[in-house]
């Protein structure tokens, strides 16, 4: 169960009176305080054709990158790119 954070009316009024520079400073301080935590990882299991996996591992080795790191890099790039119809490769 997630905790619910309640704010006093006094605190909310104080926040409403913040200048844009104060808001930016607060957000930057918050990011520096909490933003350096590594994202939690989830162990997954998936079946991949052996020849595809072997080729992928070989190509990753050619660029001196662990193949699992390369998988995560490709996943992140795909997720961050704007979605488009051509992403559907199921055909």
Question: How would you describe this structure to a colleague?
Answer:
The structure is a single chain. This protein is mostly helical and 91 residues long. The protein contains four helices and no strands. The two termini are 41 Å apart.
Taking pLDDT < 50 over at least 5 consecutive residues as the criterion, the unreliable ranges are none
Structural class by sheet pairing and helices = mainly alpha
Calculate Rg over CA atoms: 22 Å
Number of E strands = 0
How many H/I helices? 4
Gap from first CA to last CA? 41 Å
Proportion of helical residues: 40-55%
Strand content: under 5%
Write down the overall geometry: elongated
Order of helices and strands: HHHH
Subunit arrangement of the protein: single chain
- Tell me about the biggest sheet? none
Provide the residue-averaged pLDDT. Answer: 85
